[in-house]
Amino acid sequence: MRIVITGAAGFLGSHLCDRLLAEGHQVVGLDNFITGSRENIAHLMGNENFTFYKHDVSNYIYIAGKVDAVLHFASPASPNPQSPLAYFNLPIQTMKAGALGTHNTLGLAKANHARFLLASTSEIYGDPLEHPQKESYPGNVDPAGERAVYDEAKRFAEALTLAYHRQHGVDTRIVRIFNTYGPRMDLEDGRALPNLLKQALLGKPLTVYGDGSQTRSFCYVDDLIEGVVRLLYSNEHMPVNIGNPVEMSILEFAETINRITGNSAGIQFLPRARSTRDPQRRRPDITRAREILGWEPKISLEEGLRRTIPYFKQKLGLTE
Ligand code: NAD
Ligand code: UDP
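That is the input. Now the predicted structure with uridine-5'-diphosphate docked in place:
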């Protein structure tokens, strides 16, 4: 297939490029580098099956030649208001990537009779009142809250994707991605793993917001990409959760990172910003992914951290 990937220079987009190129596809990557980096795709330059265009997908997308699939991953993704790369600080760009970017990528798929896959998120469940989250749970999102720029854009994106499927017959897929981590995450984007792992490797105390009782479920990138690729090759049109169902508190997560890195600086508790509506609990119900895709994650948190640490050390200049 000839596959267009938006957000190709980002964390997940670049891993997806690697995986689909390894399977023998041609990949056309698009990115405007708002939160991504040229370094993430530097190793692909010169690969005859890879083409890259710097482009903002909120604007009309023109790709010469046949396209067989479009995977829309372009969007800021960090919720930490302390980072300039977070969607709180890129509110209009985030809404445009989710709304106009989804419209343009769906248009590209429709014109080419191509498959389409939307990268949605567990954030569409908001601060969930149902636990764990099944795909049938409609969510608890405040459209006037600060997180809405991301959550509502992704909710709109899902609705538009299904509208193109139902009205125009576009062959669409929707993956609801839960917290994923691994090499090529931006160390400065403020998400929990880059913040805490960077602090641990530098021998600093880990910043836990609030008392750390809020929970998340962390999936290693290779597991996530496997789920996304299986969904792409499937015939499932309704949303599918992909994430790791092993739930833990953020405090436990921080303690695990300190243990694995041998950091003895402990934990620094910081106030949890109320205004951000930081979800209290999050864990995917992956029954549908198991049944439809035969997928479940295989890599434990400890193993995933071991695979991620060398990248962080290299970025921090800590390699001997
Ligand atoms: P990332 O910030 O590393 O990657 C996003 C990429 O999209 C970046 O390279 C950025 O420059 C690019 N981009 C943003 N707006 C653009 C635009 N208008 N035009 C072109 N390129 C644009 O983040 P990520 O973690 O790789 O996330 C990728 C996708 O997966 C996002 O859609 C995100 O919402 C979704 N997602 C990720 C996670 C996770 O845990 N990593 C969880 C849920 C959903
Ligand atoms: N968090 C934290 N310390 C940090 C960064 C994040 O305690 O330095 C918490 C954050 O408040 C949230 C959880 O870790 O409860 C996961 O945050 P992340 O930014 O990874 O994304 P989210 O899961 O909220 O989308």
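The radius of gyration is 19 Å.
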